[in-house]
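Sample pair:
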Amino acid sequence: MPTPFKRARQTKILATLGPASNTKDRIRELFEIGADLFRLNFSHGTHEDIAALASAIREIESEADRPIGIVGDLQGPKLRIGTFKNGSIELDRGAMIRFDSDPAPGDETRVHMPHSEIFGVLEKNGLFFIDDGKTRCRIREIGKNYFVAEIRAGGKLSDKKGFNVPETFLPIPALTEKDKNDLKAALEIGVDWIAQSFVQIPDDVAEAKKLIGGRAALMVKLEKPAAIQNLEAIVDLADGVMLARGDLGVEIPPEDVPSVQKRVVRYVRDQGKPVVVATQMLESMITSSRPTRAEASDVATAVYDGADAVMLSAETAVGQHPLRSVEMMDRICARTESDEIYKTMMEEARPDAVDDPSDAITTAAFYVAHDIDAACIVTYTTSGSTALRMARQRPDMPILCLSSQINVARKLALSYGVHAVCTPEIQGEFSGPVPYACKILREEGLAEKGQRFVMTAGVPFGVAGTTNILRIAEME
């Protein structure tokens, strides 16, 4: 298979696999056309099904000789109502309905609420939503193990629809027993990232980190208002962040989502960790061969904000046009990055160097590369920290990351502009790797003879967190 070198963009694309993309041939096509990583959703499918997808990705990775990241997405606790005698009911505005602990199938007057934790946190006159906000209710009466609500926006309501209580902390652990079993399976499969759902407080993140035990990186999904309130402490513990706007947008006012997106992306970038903007990006392409203009603008906005990656969910998992969805997202990202306004925005939002010698070297390398119009920035890294520091600067040239650790190279597939290559461990003086870097740059299509590039590394090689050398070199 011809290796797809040098994307025309720096922003990465994370594509979700599902029934529309569950064969090796289709996964290969998605990769070739632009997907940099793949999301395996543990909300659907068996562990065997997911393991087969991961195996196909690793085969494609071997054939392409290019690291591909895999994200294992945990379901998290899902609050759902019970069932109805006839499978669904019709609710009119102004009608009253009771939610209680009786597991019997419901009707137009009552429905089962399986989650006992809910009863202790609700308040009279408080709002809650069902079915992603399609049904909106206001609580009028609260009793022991029941509450009565007035329908404010009704319509058809069917079995086991999701239940959201906006702007309310729910005393529910982020990891269910299913999540813990799925986490164990994901680590055995060899995923590079674990995406954790329903995070509300730092303790949720700490528990997941302990269970992962360094065998994968942890991506926290921001989908609860409490997580936004605890953003700094949560990001400090996490390795990366996914802004899950679909779920978050149900629980906070829609008009707040854009500003939250900008604040989260800016903050996570400043911390030098990758951030993904996710959900409903090209939603209409589930059935349509073209996105709406608003959706194209939405993807571009995430790029203008400085996201490391943008994600496709149902578009590639169950949609009718998975390849066209990736192709369209690729084109939007590339076009946005070529805009002078984008370059100005990245410059204005560029973070200052922190009080750390390695970060000072990396920041200096960025400015040197910019001043000499370098074709590429080359980083030798063991842990990936050097590449992450460089990605934080959002350079407009590729970052060639050379690492002897395949798991590090795969993880960095998520980071802005990073073109990771797994290499033999480097030995000897810093001058020795220059010819090797030239060879890789030529093979990867990142630079040509006579062009200059900037290199950073830590000497001695192989010691994590010791970036202390900067060098300008010329392609031989």
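The mean pLDDT is 93.
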